[in-house]
Amino acid sequence: MTTATVTENTIQSPTSFRYCEQIIVQELADVLDHVDEAQIDALVDLIANARKVFFVGVGRVKLALEVIAKRLAHLGVDTVMVGQITEPAICEKDLLIVGSGSGKTGFPLFIAGKAKSFGAKVARIGIVEDCPMKQYTDLFVHVPAAGKPGSGTKPSQQPMTSLFEQSLLLVGDAIAMSMVRKRDIDLDSLWEYHANLE
User: Which residues are identified as catalytic?
Assistant: First the structure.
């Protein structure tokens, strides 16, 4: 059996890395192509005008938000993860970004309500717009990924809500790249913000 034949057979196998990778890339492209650019532009404006930008989410969504917060910090944005030990008080000059596909997860919902009670702006990146968190949200960024069972969203071949978490991360990276270009930031200059206790 030649190498070419092995490669061809591997690509055709639904359990192969290449086959799975192609499904993931296609699903991501489909979701990101349907994100409303006007909503992203509005979020970039909120970030640019905020004194501090707070982030809240749970599980893998929280991990994606931590990556976004770190990237924006590299651009000079003052970012805070809700719950970090050095978390300051939020006020009316600040922005809370909530990552929640369903918009009804308990902890982010509670935090969104608290943020509004202190006058902060609240932006949510999620799948379902009509949800309990809608009452607290100044801006909703719709990421039409697969959601939890019963959410009415189209299915994904990936397990659980992987597609939303991946899409959330890439939306954050696209926002960061947009900000770099709008501000005409020299990429090499960003290394001054990189952690150096490593």
Answer: 165
